[in-house]
Design a protein that fits this description.
By secondary structure, the protein is α+β, with helices and mostly antiparallel strands. The protein is built from 13 helices and 13 strands. It has a single domain, classed as DD-peptidase/beta-lactamase superfamily (Beta-lactamase, 3-Layer(aba) Sandwich), CATH 3.40.710.10. The strands form 4 sheets. It has a 7-stranded antiparallel β-sheet with strand order 1-2-4-3-13-12-11, with helices on both faces. Helix 2 packs antiparallel against helix 12 and helix 8 packs across helix 9. The radius of gyration is 20 Å and the shape is globular.
Length: 410
């Protein structure tokens, strides 16, 4: 059915299969009651779009968020970064179990000599950040960051624990992809994924697309956030990955042309919900879509399997569960001192959230792909109630009954 609904934040438009009307209801509620400004949500089943809705404003009091509005999805970009590595592995151009030095010899110094490619994907390689603050604009300079990270001593012996590599994954994985593919990761993604699938999705936005971008609106920290495990660690231990994560996040400007033009594979993808859902559609359907193979079944099985889990992530200070480059369902609702630190999916699902609350994922058991983007950032480390309510409604529409055990089940 075609949608055109008025909310207090603006018009909601698009299409929605009646079976997924609960998703539409949750989307509208986000504007009416949860502070949404502008957003999009898209869902495919077996590669066919069943939800494609958008609405609100590109910024408060500004132009409408329309069908083709795009925005920064921060770490939801990591799903694209990981996909490029797995596609190369599937083609035999990248061995995930090989030493990183096979592809990037300069990385093997200062205690990283035995690090393996898979460790860069599961956040255990030991360089979640660099200790010295990068030069001004350093995150926008590929060669500079590659050199800095190659020389950095690890925070722990690679492979022995994990800590979320919030921004350095751009170069730990990105440079491996660059060396294996002999082309930069952003170009590889555009040529091998975005263009074949017809996606509005860039890692390194062309200037000609700037007029379509909705600026990101920062959330104001609350007293609860400032008493969270992550924030207290970041503020009390200036040598911790948590502290450097907060420092580095503030050094990236998603609303600056240079921030969007750079290739930061862990954090500056520009797309909309249609782009996220479209990227995951092949992965929800055996690795192929419309006759185009992206990965085979063996590779897909490895992509979705938990590779690293911990009771306390060395950066985020919460329990985390990662596949190779992807997040799995994480249930931290019970954990004191956290705020929006969960992402509840099915057991087979894998994907990634982004700062502020965007999310994209594939659910192979239902052949569902999902995307949600927004411009008003929320607080917390994973999904806030806007994104999670949409995910919940999607699973309920498919007959799932509960997420009480930490994953959605039938």
């Amino acid at each position: 059915m075609t949608i055109s609904l008025t909310t207090k934040a603006g018009i909601v438009e698009g299409t929605c299969d009646p079976k997924f009307s609960g998703v539409l209801d949750a989307f509208v509620t986000n504007f009416e009651a949860r502070g949404e400004v502008g957003a999009s949500c898209s869902i495919t089943i077996e590669g066919k779009t069943v939800v494609d809705v958008w609405g609100g404003k590109r910024e408060p009091g500004g132009a409408a968020w329309d069908r083709d509005t795009i925005s920064c999805v921060f770490s939801s970009t990591k799903g694209a970064l990981a996909l490029t590595a797995h596609m190369l592995a599937d083609r035999g151009q990248l061995d995930l179990d090989a030493l990183i030095t096979k592809y990037w010899p300069e990385f093997g110094q200062n205690g990283k000599e035995n690090a393996r490619v898979a460790m860069a994907l599961d956040h255990s390689v030991g360089v979640p950040h660099v200790r010295s603050a990068p030069k001004p604009g350093g995150f926008y300079d590929w060669d500079y960051m590659v050199d800095v990270i190659a020389k950095e001593a690890p925070f722990w012996e690679p492979g022995t624990r994990n800590g979320y590599h919030g921004i350095t994954m751009s170069w730990t994985v990105g440079e491996i992809v660059h060396r294996a593919a002999t082309k930069r990761m952003g170009v590889f993604f555009q040529d091998e994924v975005a263009k074949p699938l017809g996606l509005d999705f860039w890692i390194g936005l062309p200037e000609a697309q700037e007029h379509r971008v909705a600026p990101m609106l920062q959330a104001m920290p609350t007293a609860e956030v400032m008493q969270s495990r992550f924030f207290l660690k970041a503020m009390s231990d200036m040598t911790s990955p948590s502290h450097f994560f907060m420092r580095d996040f503030l050094a990236f400007n998603p609303n600056a042309r240079e921030g969007r033009a750079a290739e930061i594979g862990a954090g500056n993808g520009i797309t909309n919900a249609r782009g996220l859902a479209g990227m995951y559609a092949p992965l929800a359907n055996g690795g192929s879509l419309n006759g185009k193979r992206f990965v085979g079944k063996d590779t897909l099985a490895r992509m979705s399997r938990i590779a690293m889990g911990t009771h306390q992530d060395g950066t985020l200070m919460i329990p985390t569960r990662f596949a190779l480059g992807y997040m799995k369902s994480m249930d931290n609702r019970w954990l004191p001192g956290t705020d929006s630190a969960s992402c509840l999916l099915s057991d087979s699902a894998f994907g990634h959230v982004g700062a502020g609350g965007s999310v994209g994922f594939a659910c192979p058991e239902t052949r569902m792909s999902f995307g949600y983007t927004m411009n008003q950032m929320g607080l917390g480390l994973l999904l806030n109630d806007r994104g999670q309510s949409l995910v919940d409604a999607a699973y309920k529409a498919l007959g799932y009954r509960s997420n009480a055990g930490g994953v959605w089940i039938t």
